[in-house]
Design a protein that fits this description.
Helix content of chain A: under 10%
Order of helices and strands of chain B: EEEEEEEEEEEE
Oligomer: heterodimer
Strand content of chain A: over 45%
Largest interface: A-B, 28 and 23 residues
Distance between the termini of chain A: 36 Å
Structural class of chain A: mainly beta
Number of strands of chain B: 12
Largest sheet of chain A: 7 strands, mixed
Order of helices and strands of chain A: EEEEEEEEEEE
Distance between the termini of chain B: 41 Å
Radius of gyration of chain A: 13 Å
Strand content of chain B: over 45%
Shape of chain B: globular
C-alpha cells in the first residue's frame, strides 16, 4: 500500500529534550515536506526537500532541523523543544512538479511542557 | 505572494441538502488549486485538483469544485450532503516555482446534521 508513515503518533515531552519525528514514504517521491497545523492558522510549511541531500526552509523553520539522506526518509528534529512547538505535525510527499497532489502522513501530535 | 482564503470557519448543512465550501485565491499567473479533507484524528486526504482545462472538476466521494478565474474562486460543492461528510476542509494553492510549496487556507469545518 502506498503510504506516508510517521512515528510517533503522539508525544509528550519536556522543554529542552531533543526529539526526532520520523517520516517515511514508499512511493519513490522526490518531494517531501513537513507542516505544522495550529487552530485558526491552517497548515504552515516548516521545511521541504526537493530530493536527496536537498533541503530548504519553509515559512516557519525556527527551532527545527531536517535531513534527507535517503529518498524515502525525511526526519524532523527538534534540538531543544519549547512549548510554542506544541502542535500537530504532518509529513507529506509527492512527485516533483507543482501539478501533483501531496500525500500526507497520519500526523504526530506533540505536546511540550 | 500567493494566498488562499476560506471565509467561513464553519458551514452547517442538513443531510441531503447541497453544500458549498468557499475558497478564493490570490496568485500571479495560473493557479494550481487543491482541496483536502481531514477527518478527526486522521491526516489530510486529497479530494480534487484544478490544473488546467474544464472549470468543473470532479473528485472523490462525490465532491466537485468549480474554478472561476474572474472571481478567483474555487468553491467545493456536493449535490447531496451526508453526515459522514462532516470534517475539516482545506483549500490550497501550490507554488509554481522552485519550492512546490502548498499554501493552505485556514480550513472550514463542515457539519452535516441528520
Amino acid at each position: 500500500e502506498a503510504q506516508v508513515t510517521q512515528n510517533p503518533r503522539y508525544l509528550i515531552t519536556v522543554t529542552g529534550k531533543k526529539l526526532t519525528v520520523t517520516c517515511s514514504q514508499n512511493m519513490n517521491h522526490e518531494y517531501m515536506s513537513w507542516y505544522r497545523q495550529d487552530p485558526g492558522l491552517g497548515l504552515r510549511q516548516i521545511y521541504y526537500s526537493m530530493n536527496v541531500e536537498v533541503t530548504d526552509k519553509g515559512d516557519v523553520p525556527e527551532g527545527y532541523k531536517v535531513s534527507r539522506k535517503e529518498k524515502r526518509n525525511f526526519p524532523l528534529i527538534l534540538e531543544s523543544p519549547s512549548p510554542n512547538q506544541t502542535s500537530l505535525y504532518f509529513c507529506a510527499s509527492s512527485p516533483a512538479g507543482s501539478s501533483y497532489e501531496q500525500y500526507f502522513g497520519p500526523g504526530t501530535r506533540l505536546t511540550v511542557t | 505572494a500567493q494566498s488562499v482564503a476560506q471565509p467561513e470557519d464553519q458551514v452547517n448543512v442538513a443531510e441531503g441538502n447541497p453544500l458549498t465550501v468557499k475558497c478564493t485565491y490570490s496568485v500571479s499567473g495560473n493557479p494550481y488549486l487543491f482541496w483536502y479533507v481531514q477527518y478527526p484524528n486522521r491526516g489530510l486526504q486529497f479530494l480534487l485538483k484544478y490544473i488546467t482545462g474544464d472549470n468543473l472538476v470532479k473528485g472523490s466521494y462525490g465532491f466537485e469544485a468549480e474554478f472561476n478565474k474572474s472571481q478567483t474562486s474555487f468553491h467545493l460543492k456536493k449535490p447531496s450532503a451526508l453526515v459522514s461528510d462532516s470534517a475539516l476542509y482545506f483549500c490550497a494553492v501550490r507554488e509554481l516555482w522552485n519550492t512546490d510549496k502548498l499554501i493552505f487556507g485556514t480550513g472550514t469545518r463542515l457539519q452535516v446534521f441528520p
